[in-house]
Write a structure and sequence with these properties.
Layout lengths: L1 H14 L4 E4 L14 H10 L3 E8 L5 E3 L4 E2 L2 E2 L5 H4 L13 H8 L6 E6 L5 H17 L6 E5 L2 H10 L5 E3 L6 H7 L3 E5 H6 L3 H7 L3 E5 L4 H9 L4 E4 L2 H5 L2
Parallel strand pairs: 1-2, 1-11, 2-6, 6-7, 7-8, 8-9, 9-10, 10-11
Antiparallel strand pairs: 2-3, 4-5
């Protein structure tokens, strides 16, 4: 009877843990902001969300910049030098930010995590260079404890764990089970919510394995509550204020 009671109490705590909110590409659905802009990061900091997610790419001359799409204003980032990109503007008029500028803005509010998505590159060698440069800048600006990493590239995830074993790294693609991630030494998953709807047991399986669980891009109240009731640790959303108090 005592064992059963402890199990029930543990289960209650386990499944009612608070689901925390990550602002997808920052909190950009506000006046004078834009996805992956410095203003979207500052907005997320002001709202005190768990974290602000942003996308990192590398120019042809090895500069790290923050932008989701492969192209900006007709320029393919990986095939363009930073000297040509530095004047390109986001939709709110801000110039495309460098990774360094983002980290410097982020470290002003240490309580808000910087969720760094390293975008896949055209070769393993370029991906490995991207990882090395990103970790070097994270170390330079003293934000290692504030940064968590995500990627669609399994190679990037593995390289991050190889070079920085203490970093929190989550895989995005959705094609690996929790056990496979555990076996690879990856810290958890950040899967599209549709993947988790097709595999509803993966959240509890991951938690039993000690993995971090996250889902993107959750903009619907009903889907959010389904994931929250399943015990997911985090959701990444374009509407963070809408979900914050659900």
């Amino acid at each position: 009877m005592k064992t059963l009671l402890v199990t029930l109490i543990f289960s209650s705590v386990f499944y009612n843990a608070q689901t925390r909110i990550i602002a997808h590409r920052g909190y950009w659905k506000t006046e004078n902001s834009a996805q992956n802009s410095i203003s979207s990061l500052r907005n997320a900091q002001q709202q005190q969300f768990y974290g602000s997610e942003f996308d990192v790419r590398m120019t042809t001359d090895g500069k790290l910049v923050v932008n989701h799409d492969e192209h900006i204003n007709g320029f393919e980032i990986s095939e363009t030098s930073f000297s040509k990109l530095r004047t390109q503007k986001l939709k709110n008029g801000e110039k495309i930010p460098t990774f360094a500028k983002y980290l410097k803005a982020g470290r002003k509010v240490p309580a808000v995590k910087l969720i760094v998505e390293l975008k896949p590159a055209k070769s393993v060698e370029l991906e490995n260079t991207l990882v090395q440069k990103a970790l070097k800048e994270v170390e330079k600006y003293g934000v290692a404890a504030q940064c968590e990493f995500i990627s669609f590239s399994l190679n990037i995830c593995k390289e991050l764990k190889k070079l920085q074993p203490n970093a929190t790294v989550q895989y995005l693609k959705g094609d690996l089970t929790p056990q496979q991630l555990k076996d690879l030494g990856i810290d958890g998953f950040d899967y599209n919510f549709k993947i988790l709807q097709k595999n509803p047991a993966w959240i509890s399986e991951a938690k039993n394995l000690g993995l971090v669980t996250n889902s993107w891009t959750v903009n619907d109240d009903t889907i959010y509550l389904e994931l929250k009731n399943a015990g997911i640790d985090f959701v990444t959303t374009d509407v963070p204020t809408q979900l914050k108090n659900k």
